Amino acid sequence: MTAPTTAVPAKTGSAQQDTLAIRTLRLLAADAVEAASSGHPGLPMGMAPAAWVLWSRTLRFDPAEPDWPDRDRFVLSAGHGSALLYGLLHLCGFDLPLDELRRFRQIDSRTPGHPEHGLTPGVEMTTGPLGQGIATAVGMALAERLLAATYNDEDGTVVDHRTFVLASDGDLMEGISHEAASLAGHLGLGRLIVLYDDNEITIDGRTDIACSDDTDTRFAAYGWHVATVEDGNDTEAIHAAVQAAVAEPDRPSLIRIRTTIGYGAPDVEGTPAAHGAPLGADQLARAKQRLGGDPDQSFHVPAPLIGVRDRLVAAGRRRRQDWEARHAAWGTRNPSAASQWRRTMSGSLPDGLTDAVPTFEPGTRMATRSAFGAVLRATSAVMPELVGGSADLAASTKTGTSDTTDVTREDHRGRRLHFGVREHAMAAACNGIALHGGLRPYGATFAVFSDYARPAIRLSALMGQPVIHVFTHDSIAVGEDGPTHQPVEQLTALRLIPDLAVLRPADANETAAAWEVALNRTDGPTALFLTRQDLPVLDAAPRGAVGQDGAWTVHDSATRPDVVLIATGSEVALAIEAAARLAADPDPLAARVVSMPWREQFLRQPGHRHDRLLPPGVPRVAIEAGVREGWDRIVGDAGAVLALDRFGLSAPGPEVQQRLGLTEDAVVAAARAVVAARAAARTADPTPSPTTTGVAHA
After folding, report:
1. Is the pLDDT of residue 616 over 70?
2. How far apart are CA 107 and CA 666, in angstroms?
3. Is the pLDDT of residue 8 over 50?
4. What is the SS3 assignment for 346?
5. Distance CA 353, CA 191 (A)
6. Is residue 59 within 8 Å of 72, Cβ to Cβ?
7. Domains of the chain
8. Could you read off the pLDDT of 410-432 as tens digits, one per residue?
9. What residues are annotated to the active site?
């Protein structure tokens, strides 16, 4: 195989042009913040030299095709410094006119307060929550290595790029950075390069009031290459450090750059006052004068930089066209791999996927986590782009049942990842893998630990990335491990995240359907909640019932029902048992059981589809082993909810369920109570119920 490309473009322009570009970046950021009366001028003014050196001399990009697959990725983990990134994109020829910088932080602009993926060309991910960028970049760098191991052949490389990060003190203080840096060092992600803005200032004051880490030693201990640039204005030292990092094959790199926050602003540079507020008209004018600009000009881009931009654009076009030629030649040599490349890069699913998804025999028993393992194994055989693993719980989450091999530092050809006990970094790395393209990531842990991953899950929903989160041990039925390991509020908490699909399947066949839903979602993440305990396998739901309606009738009476029992997950079997008992009682009631694995999808359906499953005027009982929030909207004022208003207990699962009231007796009693209450209400007010009442008015 041809050695990976490490050569970088020659320096663009003269030292004088570099000085001009750096000053322009500093003042564009300060002008943008001033115009918005909001923002963070300090980081852009301090890190402009490092950012310009990286973008003008090393970073591989093409503004005309900002998403070409083999571009370098640049992640502004310190997203509060967005004005610097917008200035870079403008000076480097991306479709970001100067007018957009003038509209910084204004509604409908392409220059929001923190960078947003999909809104601004050249922005690789949404950043702002500190630590997320560096951790997500680990996933991007990992994806590059996985794809290189898959597609590069002996005659050439088609995957050959790097991931660069600009990180702040805050990024490195956040706990997720420790998880992610440890994982990156363990996996030998040598194409991950972090430029650390070491300005020793946070909002509250100097960093030493809260943190005295030896950052260099910390990252070296993680297995990183570490370099230091003592003067953040020394462009040649910065370039040399970047080049040394580029040449480092097997270790990620941290370049610590000592900068002065708010550099050039006479009264506030080097102080917390420069961090997150406009400089003010007088201070800004004096900064412009001090830096050699014109105090009377705003948003000024000197004419010589137009020529620099044109050269950068031309160089980027040549690099992209050279890659396209190499890729075309590679595709001729490897037609099957090229076909797979086109499909996976487009996000399309393979032919035959539906046929590969197994069905399970009704009447048998199986935990939904075990069903997931079987479905994962079957679909991995036809979806080589599936990549993922667990947070040190492969045997428990059944992610270890795939026939794929492990990804290791020495061998990136596998598809099974061992994330270690790092739930937060796992979720963020999965975001990075999804953002990179060409792979479909999943990560698994216990449901109660979804709290550790929540910030990254929220970010995947915000960015619309098709990450799959698998959460097992989903209820108090976990049993003996006790309330610390028994999720109560987690299911509802995740349902509150917009654009996150949360499914809790009732059995093995619903689990297979839920996995298909997750694979078919290309515009957002999916969370699956799965049981540890065995459940009865039911008949498979009608095609599309889970993914389209979010609910279906799993058990029905021969006549119009007297009551509808609505449940998710393991409580569906409980509802079916209660329905059978109600029918067999001396004073029988006809009960319909509705399984609602995807509650929010059901709520999105039009009213007539609700009425088909939940007939108007028929009282309802909802049963779920979690907090009750959200179910009152389903059952209405006349319904009942059997849920939990407390944490669990340490005891065998069936005993915990018995003690906390999730029993057949409780369901039967609730059903009879709502039917009796409905009858009493009708006696008091015989006015007929309306034909259509909607989910909120049973």
Report:
1. yes
2. 52
3. no
4. helix
5. 33
6. yes
7. 15-320 (3.40.50.970), 353-536 (3.40.50.970), 549-684 (3.40.50.920)
8. 999 999 999 999 999 999 999 99
9. 423
